[in-house]
TrEMBL record:
Pfam families noted in UniProt: LysM
Name this protein carries in UniProt: LysM domain-containing protein
Example of a GO MF term: transmembrane receptor protein kinase activity
Keywords in alphabetical order: Cell membrane, Disulfide bond, Membrane, Signal, Transmembrane, Transmembrane helix
Transmembrane spans: none
Domain LysM, chain residue ranges per copy: 163-208
Entry annotated with the keyword Ribosomal protein: no
């Protein structure tokens, strides 16, 4: 599959973004003016490590890593209740200048415009609804390379980092909180524009603090990277994204290996976070 977008490390970029209102169709009083997470220490060095929620869209892990300007080793597949497997992409989050009065946290990448691309389909189909102000309001020209700004977040209160997440159909705040092992109140605390906890609109970007509920019975995210045969033979390396498994609580530390026997009598060697 031809790579549609490629990444580039850009530091010290000063750009102007038009802050936008979240699009409300049913309840205009449900949110205030949305803004990226503000910061004060503008720097070309990352302020923290964060996560972006990437909808798989049929892409493998290497393709997602390239599109989101991240490392394949920092991608963690996550299985939703519907059975769909998406990806949490670990990325550096940097404090950048927006305008003369505001700085905010972003992760930047580059995208090669394809024939027929529009700001809307680049945002939704390539960047999982996370990209801000694609093309800065200009018409996209095939063959051009554009900088894409992806809002990210940092919080000392998020044990496993802050996730940038675009609300999907059928989502509610409690469902989102449960998926990422946090609480509705913790999400509200990190999103001052979200004023009605009973109303979230598909497409809204939320900052989700992960791993803050303190539960000892957490649902861990595990990537199965190898098969080991039942007779103890050499492991077989799996294709990127070929398999994932959600394991129950076992008390292992982050990054520990776990083993899950599949129905073929082989062992999946999984790295869990």
């Amino acid at each position: 599959m031809a790579k549609q977008c490629y990444s580039s490390c850009k530091h010290g970029l000063i750009f102007f973004l038009v802050l936008f209102m979240q699009d409300l169709h049913t309840n205009t009083a449900s949110t205030a003016r949305w803004q990226p997470m503000q910061c004060v220490a503008v720097s070309s060095s990352p302020s923290c490590s964060s996560f972006l929620y990437a909808i798989s869209e049929g892409r493998n892990l290497s393709e997602i890593a390239a599109v989101f300007n991240g490392s394949a080793s920092l991608l963690h597949p996550i299985k939703r209740a519907s059975g769909v497997v998406d990806v949490l992409a670990g990325v550096p989050c940097t404090c950048e200048v927006i305008n003369s009065t505001m700085s905010a946290l972003f992760h930047d990448t580059l995208c090669l415009v394809r024939p027929g691309d529009t700001p809307e389909n680049v945002k939704s189909k390539i960047f999982s609804e996370l990209a801000m102000n694609i093309g800065d309001g200009k018409v996209l020209i095939s063959g051009d390379t554009i900088t894409v700004h992806l809002p990210c977040g940092c919080s000392s209160g998020a044990a496993k980092g802050v996730l940038s997440y675009a609300v999907q159909e059928e989502d509610t705040l409690p469902k989102i909180a449960s998926l990422f092992r946090t609480s509705s109140q913790d999400i509200l605390n990190l999103n001052p524009s979200l004023v009605n906890p009973d109303f979230v609109q598909p497409g809204w970007i939320l900052f989700v603090p992960m791993g803050v509920d303190g539960s000892s019975k957490e649902r861990r995210i595990c990537t199965c990277c190898q098969y080991q045969t039942s007779d103890g033979g050499s492991p077989l390396t799996m294709r990127d994204g070929a398999d994932t498994v959600m394991l129950g609580d076992s008390g292992r530390a982050k990054g520990a290996q776990d083993h899950h026997h599949d129905k073929r009598g082989e062992t999946l060697i999984c790295c869990c976070v």
